[in-house]
């Protein structure tokens, strides 16, 4: 099955040298994101634990995790991460290419504001689809940083999703949907659109030719923009999703309590590990996605019919 529009990738759509007659498989974005997330999982784990615990810095949090659970503890909640990538990330990449084709039907690459609009649309769709899996992932990552009596103790993502549904009801799937979807809109508007924009500008200035080096620098810019734009929503989302008890699911309640206790800079708590995690993740996602698409091209050119 393929996405309804050409997915010559956020890179290839900007290259005057390439044209695609057939869309790429819609699931390539999810596979690329899963590979990247598996590699950077310890950093994502640390980011979540910094946002939801009393750890004061990235190194302290990493040491605490290794001391408490060994090196394997750095991969706590990995199954939740993979499930999230094959739902949320798969949706956002497919929806972005579809939205970009819908908002820009003229010749040449779309302007920056249309890229941002397409990213926002994709983020809104993916945020709704991915919220229950995001909640599950965050809980599994943050669990062992909590007191034993506050832990969820999910064995894996499937068992965790079943328990979350049976113990809290189907409404638990929508917990934190507001801030998560808002954060998803910001992420895709900033990450996907800025990646396209950086790529377009670097090509236009003829600084680099279309290839891995250009993809790397475009990803570098996109990761920095996305981290800064998304930090406040990311912190609030994590705190809502991991909170216990009545009255802890209110977005405004979490914001008021955090402001009173920590001041406005709480919204950027964990920025360094978030950037450290998102930067290589962004680079790995786009470099991997490009190679996957190149592999599809090679397969098709050799006469393959399955993709």
What key attributes describe this structure?
307 residues, disordered N terminus, single chain, mainly alpha, globular
Fold topology:
Elements: H1 9-12, H2 28-52, H3 58-69, H4 78-103, H5 112-142, H6 157-168, H7 177-204, H8 212-242, H9 251-262, H10 271-301
Helix pairs in contact: 2-3, 2-4, 2-10, 4-5, 5-6, 5-7, 7-8, 8-10
Family: Belongs to the mitochondrial carrier (TC 2.A.29) family.
Solcar repeats: 24-102, 110-201, 210-295
GO cellular component, one term: mitochondrial membrane
Describe this structure in words.
Solcar repeats lie at residues 24-102, 110-201, 210-295. Pfam families: Mito_carr (PF00153). With 307 residues, the protein is mainly α. It has a domain at 188-293. Helices cover 69% and strands 0% of the residues. Helix 2 (28-52) runs antiparallel to helix 10 (271-301) and helix 4 (78-103) runs antiparallel to helix 5.
Report a brief summary of the structure.
This is Solute carrier family 25 (Mitochondrial dicarboxylate transporter), member 10. The protein contains 10 helices and no strands.
Spatial separation of the terminal alpha carbons: 8 Å
Strand content: under 5%
The helix count comes to 10
Helix-strand makeup class: mainly alpha
How many strands, which pairing sense, and closed or not: the largest β-sheet?
Answer: none
* Shape designation: globular
The tally of beta strands, per DSSP, is: 0
Radius of gyration: 20 Å
One letter per element, helices H and strands E, the order comes to: HHHHHHHHHH
Average pLDDT level = 84
Unreliable stretches covering 5 or more consecutive residues:
1-20
Portion of residues within helices: 55-70%
